[in-house]
Amino acid sequence: MNPLILASQSPRRKQLLEWANIPFTVLVSDAEESFPPTLSKEEIPVFIAAKKARAVQSKCTSESIILAADTMVVLQDHILGKPVHREEAISMLVSLSGVKHQVITGVILTQGDRTISFSETTSVTFHPLSLAQIEYYVDQYKPYDKAGGYAIQEWIGVVGIQSIEGDFYNVMGLPVSRVIHHLQQFK
Fold this sequence. Notes:
This protein is an alpha/beta fold. It has a single domain (about 5-185), classed as Maf protein. It is built from 7 helices and 7 strands, in the order βαβαββαββααβαα. Strands 1, 2, 3, 4, 5, 6 and 7 form a 7-stranded mixed β-sheet that branches. The longest helix has 15 residues, at about 45-55.
């Protein structure tokens, strides 16, 4: 396979690719994460991922395969971004407590003028969480770089998740098996 470039600084995406034994290098994208308000919730992370891919494309060879992704948390059609401070993280987790929400990751794989794009949706339901549990998590794990204010692979996921419908690794930030399937098309 040609060289894979991960256009992301996400330690979780790096970890997932390492677990899958896929060789890659990281080239961090500085693309801003804005989007037109007319896009559907499934289109938004794909749109942002495409911006990330374009931001690094000029620094890559034409043989390189660029992988870019964006993950967002949606609660009743409201997008929960990355919390800016403690109070916002607590507020997000209070809103997710005891209810189902969606985690949507948009993925772009591109090489030269060939591009594959898709989104993956996973539904996650938290058990009802106490304010003490939420505050403990936020204070111990400081989830300010995580969409929705949580990481499923951390303490809150272990003790707080009631059910998952779909790809667990999508909630971590990358639907790895689907990425691998599509990477095979670039051989």
